[in-house]
Design brief:
389 residues, alpha/beta, 5-stranded parallel β-sheet
Length: 389
């Protein structure tokens, strides 16, 4: 590798997102536990050995060439830390690899608590987060031991993450997301993910929409950020971030009210001075994708999930950038030839208009998510073909 490979990858990424002409179209992958399976082991087998775990986790890069991780790799939520504090909100599946979010085990608010949330969201949020930690109700000695165990496991996890990041740095893998760049999460997602849960939030949208509106207003006011466009002028890299999540369950009218109005109001001034926002798509949002054409050209890099990428390209292609190219379903059930043909079709369709990053539609979580030979074939093809387009 040349010393300036990372600079080349950065310049190519900026050109791709800004509808320029990259020398090589960036090739991205999204992963969590799958690299352990690819290496023939499990997270559970090496979770207490950070050096070995990091070496095993990153070894897939010897066979599968990529340029960048748009999203983080590895585990963000480590179950044994939660378990040390008495929580089963995140658990390790029987395969020893997959991290499962057990929303049923979370301590969500009920509808009677909306008034308290609306009166003082910051205090309410703090209280609910503490209620999600059962160990805080234990006696002093038991709590002390739990905190020691959680601290130890956190230190082990942090060492694994640091060693993993060092290996990515050695391989000059690009990390396009910036934690100092603007990040927007809709207030509805705070209810959906953290406070009320999926079921409760969707029921409330039907039964008590005005209450949900007031709750979202309180959340927004408490979390409102006043970004000064002058501070971000010309900063197309690293990327800012946002996500489609609860929004995938909304009607177009609800989508405008609970997401797009504030998303555009907060971020349009930044896009106008050159900021690019990465929008992580979860679920289906083709019915509202046309809204992205109301934003400055190249202001958004959209990662598709369940929507047909070729239909999405018909709607926003040439105006907003897409991160797409291969599906997990095809990598699991397709033949090698079918997978490579699909990847080639993606390059041939999306690359000519610009605004294209080759990626996967869902993270690879565990051993059964994809056939290894298909992943290898697709990414070797993408690495080579991306230099020709």
């Amino acid at each position: 590798m040349t010393e300036d490979l990372l600079v080349q990858r950065k310049n190519d990424f900026i050109r791709a997102v800004d509808f320029g002409k990259p020398d090589k179209i960036p090739v991205d992958i999204e992963i969590t536990g799958w690299p352990f399976a690819y290496a023939g082991t499990t997270f559970d087998a090496v979770k207490d050995e950070p050096a070995r775990a990091a070496e095993i986790y990153t070894s897939f890069l010897d066979e599968i060439p990529i340029d960048c991780f748009i999203l983080d790799s590895g585990f963000i939520k480590r179950p044994d830390i939660y378990q040390a504090m008495g929580s089963d909100e995140y658990v390790l599946a029987p395969d020893g690899i997959t991290i499962q979010h057990n929303q049923a085990g979370a301590n969500f608010m009920d509808e009677s608590e909306y008034d308290e949330l609306i009166r003082d969201f910051t205090a309410f949020y703090r209280k609910k987060k503490m209620q999600k930690v059962p160990a805080l109700d234990w006696d002093k000695d038991r709590l002390y031991e739990a905190m020691k165990l959680a601290a130890h496991r956190t230190a082990v996890h942090n060492e694994f993450r640091e060693l993993m990041d060092r290996e990515y740095e050695r391989r000059q893998i690009l990390m396009p997301l910036g934690f100092t760049m603007p990040s927007y999460t809709s207030p509805l997602n705070t209810l959906f993910d953290v406070l009320r849960g999926i079921k409760g939030t969707l029921i409330d949208l039907r039964r008590r929409p005005d209450t949900v509106r007031e709750a979202c207003r309180a959340i927004r006011e408490a979390n409102k950020r006043n970004w000064d466009p002058k501070d971000y002028e010309g900063k197309s890299f690293p990327l800012g971030r946002s996500v489609y999540h609860s929004e995938c369950f909304l009607s177009p009218k609800q989508y405008d009210e609970f997401f797009f109005r504030d998303f555009e109001g907060d971020l349009r001034p930044l896009m106008e001075v050159g900021v690019n926002i990465f929008l992580k798509g979860e679920g289906m949002f083709l019915s509202t994708l046309d809204r992205m054409c109301d934003l400055p050209k190249g202001g958004v890099l959209i990662m598709l999930d369940q929507d047909d990428p070729f239909e999405a390209h018909r709607i926003v292609g040439g105006y907003q950038a897409l991160a797409t190219g291969i599906t997990v379903d095809l990598l699991k059930y397709g033949t090698r030839e079918e997978c490579v043909d699909y990847a080639k079709k993606s390059f041939d369709t999306f690359a000519p208009a610009g605004g294209f990053v080759f990626s996967i539609n869902k993270p690879l979580l565990c051993a059964n998510d994809a056939r290894n030979e298909n992943v290898e074939a697709v990414y070797r093809f993408a690495d080579e073909y991306s230099r020709r387009k």
